[in-house]
Amino acid sequence: MRQRDPKELFDRACHGDRPSLARAISYIERGEKQGDEIASFAFRSHRNAYTVGITGAPGAGKSTLTSSIIEVIRGHGEEIGVIAIDPSSPFSGGAILGDRVRMQEHALDPGVYIRSMATRGHLGGLSVAVPEAARLLGAVGFPSVIIETVGVGQVEVEIAREADTTVVVVNPGWGDAVQANKAGLMEIADVFIINKADRPGVRETRRDLEGMLDLSNLGDYRPPIVETVAADKKGCEEAWDAICSHRDYAKRSGLTDKRRSTRTRNELSRILEAMISNKVDLLLKNKGTLEMLDSMDAGTIDPRTLANLLLAAVT
Amino acid sequence: MRQRDPKELFDRACHGDRPSLARAISYIERGEKQGDEIASFAFRSHRNAYTVGITGAPGAGKSTLTSSIIEVIRGHGEEIGVIAIDPSSPFSGGAILGDRVRMQEHALDPGVYIRSMATRGHLGGLSVAVPEAARLLGAVGFPSVIIETVGVGQVEVEIAREADTTVVVVNPGWGDAVQANKAGLMEIADVFIINKADRPGVRETRRDLEGMLDLSNLGDYRPPIVETVAADKKGCEEAWDAICSHRDYAKRSGLTDKRRSTRTRNELSRILEAMISNKVDLLLKNKGTLEMLDSMDAGTIDPRTLANLLLAAVT
Predict the structure, then answer these.
(1) What residue ranges are annotated as transmembrane (chains A, B) (predicted)?
(2) For residues B82 and B114, is the Cβ–Cβ distance under 8 A?
(3) Cβ neighbours of B43 in A, within 8 Å
């Protein structure tokens, strides 16, 4: 495919052209100029998808759960977009591939759009690229977008917590709920799902979660705990119901607007920092700077004084 | 103690006044203006301490080892500075306190200066404050400074790897060497120490380390592996010998100059990024900006366009 005009690409994607949508997301993922323009068009379209972040420890069954929830959503006749955050860890490659393959049961359904996103040189990384891509999916017409994280890295948790509804997936067994608490997942959960609930220890895990919720400073909303066996498609209708209940509560209470505002402001900070970092990198490669770096090696100018000089040069 | 002039404080510290040295490091730790000035004086003094970074998993016995190595150094009649990086984790508080108490055997020795450093609002954090404090210890006359990390967090490993010599401490037992490899410690080690070498599994751990070294792309220097039982002060003379051999090799081969140059350049980047981040934060609180943020919430301007506008305002 040849290089395309961003406006043309955006328009085609809005008219349902999937190859154009895929290419537009790739531009966003790679942080290319066309991607920036497409992200701006999407933002100004005022068509926002409802976003659901699904997070939890590796192996909790997030992909299987997502796949089963997609089936529930399709059963209601709604279209759905999915972004799978893939931090491209060389270690988890196999597992990711397996999960993606499992999700391929929806590959031929035109009402489902599944996309993996990795860090590919985007300024600000996935924490900027994913919300931009989610916004694009909304702009082209998807009413809802699921953002599924592979692990519980800092960036992934941050992205999941900025969704309209954040789902935390745990498994039965001693300590899993406690681990989720330690990883800071308790405070970001709007809905808890105990997946693989056909295994022993469900009651203890539920008790642990309830206990920790009792200790939390909850307002007028208490995150529900839903049990699923996603591999057998059990409990997924209830899981989606719980998610939609939070969506309705959040809209009614103004929480959705508040979160979207926070999300956009965080995005702005990240974009600014990335742009500035870029400027610093350029500055450090500048010929005049290289000479000053030599003076620093020689001990005649210290890093802080040099930083002030360089900063004065760009600001 | 009243507020002091940075030059006066620096001069007093150089003349052996320990309360002045302590206060100067506190200024550096808190990122105060006086600290910046003191760091500049130290840099321009051209008196560099030889720095040894000691890292390894929590519980490996790094503090006990450091304490025993201090004894060896003192036995040679040399003075020594120690910076213990303490990321102030609420979880490890007890262990840290215990370790610090153990190191107090040197508390009354005027030839030893031990200082814990935590993140206290320094712009750029410990990765800027620790090298600045180490440089100050060099400037006031310590020929060597040990930088001991509490854990193996990203910042701690980064600081340890930027020392003139980096020591990685492991324990005997299946998998400890493999864990060190996974945590990225193999590639940064100039000297390996198998501490608690009176426990079973020393031979296997040594074999694992040798095997991994065989697979590494080593130049003309192969990191030695030293066995210690630091609690019984066994092997610590050999450990210090191995460290000094690396020091001599690094000086001879030009590695020391190269590492110091890299370290200072990294410091410059971190200082620049911190300064710019600061500018961005101020900018976001500006009255004019607040109005633009409202436009962003209303969807009339997107984050990227706004970022460009704001950046144009400060650069």
Answers:
(1) none
(2) yes
(3) 299, 302-303
